[in-house]
Design goal:
Structural class: mainly alpha
Order of helices and strands: HHHHHHHHHHH
Membrane topology: Multi-pass membrane protein
Shape: globular
GO cellular component, one term: plasma membrane
Largest sheet: none
Keywords: Cell inner membrane, Cell membrane, Membrane, Transmembrane, Transmembrane helix, Transport
Subcellular location: Cell inner membrane; Cell membrane
Radius of gyration: 24 Å
Distance between the termini: 46 Å
Helix content: over 70%
Organism: Agrobacterium vitis
């Protein structure tokens, strides 16, 4: 028998590329977050890195309803729009997922690109086009028009997350429920929806975060009274490099991490001892 020894050079190059490029990518992703959080604790008067001392003054200023009343309104509007966008996405994404799971693969391949098209279309282009169409049919920019725009643009995220889970569901489970005498509503409520729940929750998280952070669609479809948090943050940076922007970023980053950890805990498969 001949001993075949693998050439170590390609292996070393592969490891160097994977670990080296992976480390650089991780640093590139994490470094801005760390810098933004660090600047939010500065005792200085403006955004600057490294920060001048340590202080919680900007978080206190952000909580102050007198100084940051406009920011509170903007945050409330953003949370309202994001929550309504999640509900709107549920109304079409979940039925679409269940319906597509019952269709033939060829039909799904033909229809799915239309459902996922908003993910490919630049949201800035869609926001402008939606504004033109809304004016044409007599609708003015408003909070509700912004919600509809967010549902159209980000709703496919929920469909995609739910459809991935739906593909792993055994169709015989629903058939067995029907054979046992359950109505379609009972089968939907007791069999299909519980199995789809991980995908629905993952999609809801994606829609909520994307809607909360969106600028382009809100810029065109929100009216002057509907100030949203991302646009307010841009305005503060343009006006005075207000450090409260870093404090807002710190709060949003913290909330996102908490939600991700909770979601991972809830959606993680249970392990039997």
């Amino acid at each position: 028998m001949h001993n075949h020894r693998e050439n170590p050079i390609p292996t070393l190059l592969y490891k160097a590329f994977v670990f080296g490029f992976g480390s650089l990518s991780l640093i590139y992703l994490v470094a801005p977050i760390v810098i933004a959080i660090t600047m939010s604790f500065t005792s200085g008067q403006t955004l600057k890195y490294p920060p001048e001392g340590f202080s919680l003054r900007w978080y206190e200023a952000l909580i102050d309803p007198v100084r940051s009343g406009t920011e509170h309104i903007a945050a409330g509007n953003s949370l309202k729009i994001a929550g309504l966008a999640v509900l709107g996405s549920l109304l079409f994404a979940v039925p679409a997922t269940i319906g597509m799971a019952r269709m033939r693969r060829s039909t799904v391949n033909a229809l799915e690109p239309f459902l996922l098209a908003p993910l490919v279309l630049p949201s800035l282009v869609y926001g402008l086009a939606a504004l033109i169409v809304a004016n044409f049919v007599g609708f003015q920019p408003s909070l509700w028009l912004t919600v509809v725009g967010h549902v159209v643009v980000f709703g496919p995220l929920m469909y995609r997350a739910a459809s991935v889970v739906a593909q792993g569901i055994n169709p015989s489970l629903a058939e067995a429920s029907t054979v046992m005498g359950a109505t379609w509503y009972t089968t939907l409520r007791r069999v299909i929806l519980p199995l789809l729940t991980p995908g629905i929750l993952a999609g809801a998280f994606l829609v909520f975060i994307q809607s909360l952070d969106n600028v382009s669609v809100s810029l065109f479809l929100a009216d002057a009274q509907t100030t949203v948090l991302p646009l307010r943050m841009f305005a503060l940076i343009e006006e005075s490099l207000d450090v409260r922007v870093a404090a807002m970023s710190g709060i949003l980053i913290g909330l996102t991490l908490v939600v991700m950890l909770v979601a991972r805990r809830v959606l993680a498969p249970s392990r039997q001892a």
